[in-house]
Specification:
Blueprint lengths: L4 H24 L6 H8 L3 H7 L3 H25 L4 H17 L3 H9 L1 H28 L7 H16 L2 H6 L3 H16 L2
Helix pairs in contact: 1-4, 4-5, 4-7, 5-7, 5-10, 7-8, 8-10
Length: about 190
């Protein structure tokens, strides 16, 4: 059964609003914005926003989930396009960094200060760390990497990824999240080469 054109339009409009909401949050952050501000900026009514979520907090969480869902799909499509363990890990971490390039410092600060959205970031960081561990294990099994303990190397990556997510790396080094992911890729893959 095909969806009606009204349903298709509703879904398309909803996706468009999420994209616009996300673009607004990524560029300016969200803590300072009220529902009235958001509605005015997106040229919609507050009742339209309530079709996306039941509160501003809900909008923030939904937009954060939308961001990470899109970023994950983009990252994985880039990884699928390359061969070799080193290239896959480098591509993965660099793509994560590029995905975070879209996020302003204000968005990242607001994300860190708002528990429910921070939990989304933390969950996605944990998933990404697990993915790096899988890529390392694949590389060891293929002989592309020396026989490192994949769980240890993955935990090393996870520790750095959490440090990046929590802002400790930025504070200590001045590197933004995207640049830190690129550095992690270079160090990690250089250290485990066969």
């Amino acid at each position: 059964m095909q969806p009606s054109s009204a349903t298709t339009f509703g879904t398309a409009r909803r996706t468009q609003l999420f994209d616009e909401l996300l673009a607004l949050f990524l560029s300016e952050g969200f803590a300072h914005l009220t529902l009235d501000d958001i509605a005015a900026r997106l040229r919609c009514s507050k009742s339209t926003l309530y079709t996306l979520a039941d509160s501003k907090d809900g909008l923030v969480v939904a937009a954060t989930v939308h961001f990470f869902r899109g970023a994950t799909a983009a990252v994985e499509s880039q990884v699928a396009a390359v061969d070799g363990a080193r290239e896959r890990i480098t591509t993965y971490l660099a793509a994560v960094g590029r995905a975070l390039d879209a996020a302003s410092a204000q968005f990242m600060a607001d994300l860190g200060a708002f528990g429910p959205a921070r939990e989304v970031y933390e969950t996605n960081t944990a998933i990404a760390a697990q993915r790096v561990q899988e890529l390392i294990a694949d590389g060891v099994a293929a002989g592309d990497f020396r026989d490192v303990h994949a769980a240890f190397a993955g935990e090393l990556a996870a520790t750095m990824m959490v440090g990046i997510q929590q802002g400790r790396v930025r504070a200590a080094t001045g590197l933004d999240d995207a640049a830190a992911y690129r550095e992690l890729a270079a160090i990690l893959t250089g250290g485990i080469n066969a």
